[in-house]
């Protein structure tokens, strides 16, 4: 059959053997539904967004129509301090939460990887934050951080770390910290899952051999395990970065309860408000293109990674 | 190797302590927020407002759980979420399986580019699709309907489902299919009878990914299905708060109910799921 054919695709002019033409046609039909769904529901709307970013389209000003305005929306965006703040917040949160999720996620994976009687429970504990709906995570942590009745304040007071309950959500610096903690809790388990996969691919002999040779735990972790985890860490890093710049649900929930609003507004939240609250579809589209560009910058790294991986 | 000198033993103890602490932290850290919601949901408003915090509820009282269903049509939200999540999972997997099979097994022109395109689709920010999809669905009168959520949810999870399944299909030896085809079945027959049964863990993983994504999605559900009757649970839990009041025991009860399906799925499938994710995720 053609599957044994490891040479380059056959030149066109040669009359295809029986299997090839039908295989190509079969592949086409098998790929078609996926292509239709992706193009119809994701690509077409995305292209529409791109087009809209060059138009004025504000539902609150119907008398202005929907004229083509060229790059006016983009000019507006670069002069918009709220966009600047949102972009800064987004990148700031992305750096802190991606870094935080690795600091927490890698030890989580190591703990879940060690054989133990409570392994199943550990796996559930590892999966729970990942599976928890982000909106509900936001609600839960807003409650944990509640100034009057929040359990975090209570624990800190009992431990003597603080004298008075802190007003987490209404103190700017603390609100940022609270949101970072929440997002890190939610996303560490994603990192842990990928790292766990990497760990399971590392043969035990390697670390055992190192221990026989007198390596300490730390040495065999940093010299052997960590380098072998590099591909997993790269995948986790890129996926985490993309979801970090697009973060919406948790900031959205926090903002509802936090007077320290401006500090928590990410690009995703600003786009949502521009489209749904201000009904400024044209400008929202422009902001969306900016967010997409930020995602793309991260994606470019990933695509290169996949290309290298796919060629093997 | 054990117990020649004192040194390895001391390390062993340290290891044990470290392992216990690590596992303890993981389990407490993972469960605590949800357990706290469970405790909160069983408290009365009066118990809640005590200072310092009262950790355990006084009497076991399901009043908040009754109120969850009486103050909002929460049973309906739950039904909506279940319908939307199950159908989007079904649709997504039904579309992803043939596509992944073609990408993993058939000679497809531009395979690398197609895989890259699939990955690129997973980078689209959902919030950028909000307005165009809203207008598209409004023009075909799909707002406040199940398809308004099923279609985007299936599409948004499709890239990760395809990538997971490609990894699984590629891991199955071609000889098995070849043997089945020599025995007289067609290519699709081989897919159905040989490849699919063997990639059951991959299917479970992919299906769980889609289900969890769909169950948890908030933004599109919030914006597309605005009729109370068509709300999903992720939006539903936010409906108990007033403008200035947060009835926390009530919200907690709603959150607990809304997470029951997820916790159940994870408890049942954790082993398979972790194995499946780790087998598929890294390679893709």
Automatic annotation (TrEMBL), chain A:
Matching InterPro entries: MetI-like, MetI-like_sf
Membrane topology: Multi-pass membrane protein
Pfam families membership: BPD_transp_1
Transmembrane segments: 26-47, 91-112, 124-145, 174-199, 220-239, 281-303
Localization terms from the record: Cell membrane
PROSITE patterns attached to this UniProt entry: ABC_TM1 (PS50928)
CDD domains in alphabetical order: TM_PBP2 (cd06261)
Family: Belongs to the binding-protein-dependent transport system permease family.
Protein name, UniProt field: Sugar ABC transporter permease
Species assigned in the record: Deinococcus aerolatus
Gene: malF
Automatic annotation (TrEMBL), chain B:
Record-annotated ABC transmembrane type-1 domain positions: 78-269
Matches recorded under Pfam families: BPD_transp_1
Keyword tags: Cell membrane, Membrane, Transmembrane, Transmembrane helix, Transport
The keyword Nucleotide-binding is annotated on this UniProt entry: no
Origin: domain of life: Bacteria
KW Transmembrane helix (keyword) present: yes
Annotated CDD domains: TM_PBP2
Subcellular location: Cell membrane
Bilayer-crossing regions: 21-39, 77-101, 113-134, 146-169, 190-212, 248-269
Segment forming the signal sequence: none
Family stated for the protein in its record: Belongs to the binding-protein-dependent transport system permease family.
Protein name as annotated: Sugar ABC transporter permease
The organism's taxonomic lineage, starting at the top: Bacteria, Thermotogati, Deinococcota, Deinococci, Deinococcales
């Amino acid at each position: 059959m053609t599957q044994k054919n490891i040479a380059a695709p056959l030149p066109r002019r040669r009359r295809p053997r029986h299997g090839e033409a039908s295989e190509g046609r079969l592949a086409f039909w098998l790929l078609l539904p996926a292509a239709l769904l992706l193009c119809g529901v994701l690509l077409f709307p995305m292209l529409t967004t791109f087009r809209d970013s060059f138009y004025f389209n504000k539902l609150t000003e119907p008398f202005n129509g929907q004229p083509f305005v060229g790059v006016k929306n983009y000019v507006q965006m670069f002069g918009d301090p709220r966009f600047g703040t949102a972009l800064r917040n987004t990148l700031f949160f992305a750096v802190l939460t991606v870094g935080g999720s690795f600091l927490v996620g890698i030890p989580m994976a190591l703990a879940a990887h060690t054989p133990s009687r409570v392994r199943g429970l550990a796996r559930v504990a590892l999966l729970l934050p990942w599976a928890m709906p982000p909106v509900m995570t936001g609600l839960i942590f807003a409650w944990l951080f509640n100034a009057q009745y929040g359990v975090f304040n209570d624990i800190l007071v009992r431990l003597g770390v603080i004298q008075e309950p802190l007003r987490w959500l209404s103190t700017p610096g603390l609100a940022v910290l609270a949101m970072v903690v929440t997002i890190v809790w939610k996303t560490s388990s994603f990192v842990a899952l990928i790292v766990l996969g990497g760990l399971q691919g590392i043969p035990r002999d390697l670390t055992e051999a190192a221990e026989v040779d007198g390596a300490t735990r730390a040495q065999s972790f940093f010299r052997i395990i960590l380098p072998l985890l590099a591909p997993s860490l790269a995948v986790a890093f890129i996926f985490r970065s993309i979801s970090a710049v697009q973060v919406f649900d948790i900031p959205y929930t926090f903002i509802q309860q936090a007077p320290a609003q401006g500090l928590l507004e990410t690009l995703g939240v600003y786009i949502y408000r521009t489209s749904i609250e201000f009904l400024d579809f044209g400008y929202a589209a422009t902001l969306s293109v900016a967010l997409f560009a930020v995602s793309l910058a991260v994606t470019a790294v990933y695509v290169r990674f996949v290309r290298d991986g796919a060629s093997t | 190797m054990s117990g020649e000198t004192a040194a390895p033993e001391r390390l062993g103890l340290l290891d044990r302590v470290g392992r216990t602490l690590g596992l303890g932290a993981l389990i407490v850290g993972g469960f605590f927020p949800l357990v706290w919601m469970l405790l909160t949901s069983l408290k009365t408003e009066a118990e809640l407002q005590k200072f310092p915090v009262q950790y355990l509820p006084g009497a076991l009282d399901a009043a908040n759980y009754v109120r969850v269903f009486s103050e909002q049509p929460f049973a309906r939200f739950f039904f909506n979420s279940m319908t939307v999540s199950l159908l989007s999972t079904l649709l997504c997997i039904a579309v992803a399986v043939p596509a992944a099979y073609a990408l993993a097994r058939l000679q497809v022109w531009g395979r690398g580019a197609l895989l890259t395109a699939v990955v690129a689709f997973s980078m689209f920010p959902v919030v950028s699709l909000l307005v165009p999809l809203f207008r598209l669905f409004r023009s075909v009168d799909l707002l406040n309907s199940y398809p308004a959520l099923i279609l985007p949810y299936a599409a948004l999870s499709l890239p990760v489902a395809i990538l997971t399944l490609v990894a699984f299909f590629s891991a199955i030896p071609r000889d098995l299919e070849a043997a089945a085809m020599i025995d007289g079945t067609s290519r699709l027959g081989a897919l159905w009878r040989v490849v699919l049964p063997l990639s059951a863990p991959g299917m479970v993983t992919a299906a769980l990914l889609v289900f969890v994504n769909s169950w948890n999605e908030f933004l599109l559900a919030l914006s597309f299905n605005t009729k109370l009757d068509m709300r999903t649970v992720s939006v539903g839990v936010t409906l108990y708060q007033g403008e200035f009041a947060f009835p926390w025991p009530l919200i907690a009860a709603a959150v607990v109910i809304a997470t029951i399906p997820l916790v159940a799925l994870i408890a049942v499938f954790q082993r398979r799921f972790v194995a499946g994710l780790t087998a598929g995720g890294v390679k893709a």
